[in-house]
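Changelog note: in this version the structure field was regenerated for every chain. One regenerated record is shown below for reference.
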Amino acid sequence: SEISVADRLILPGVGAFPAAMRRLNDLGFTDMLHEHTLIKQKLTLGICLGMQLLADRGTEFSECDGLGWIPGHVRPIPRPTPELRLPHIGWNEVNIKEQSGLFADIDGDTSYYFVHSFQFIASNSDYVTATTCYGSSVTAAVARENIYGTQFHPEKSQRVGLSVLDNFARL
């Protein structure tokens, strides 16, 4: 009942892609989330695994359908050298493509806190609003219409992360 009256939703995420999708489906949340986000066009922010679930498909443990709201797929971060550890845990600089939406009035090259082993590969680079470098370019944030996502954890990213959440609240 709270989802039906909310003007914004945050889809958090810690865990594995298939288990999260199974849980959303088992609890009956998938239909409610679709109605909120796609039919009513209300704002939704996916954080970390929550952002990955916005994709069409994920490959963690097995192929699994995602919510399909931002065209793309989720796959492991490549490890070009053994020194590149997974999961990627820690602070990384984020390169913001545009100073609007979640990143309004935030410096273009700011560090955020990450914890992940998988990356969102958008089908259209226009959906990628920020990147980070971890062995190669990795999607740090996506956006499409009323749907936003951050691979980093804004709630763990100190003042700049709180600015991202504040911007989401003001959209």
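Spot check on this record: DSSP finds five helices and eleven strands in the chain. The helical segments are 2-5, 17-26, 29-39, 49-52, 158-170.
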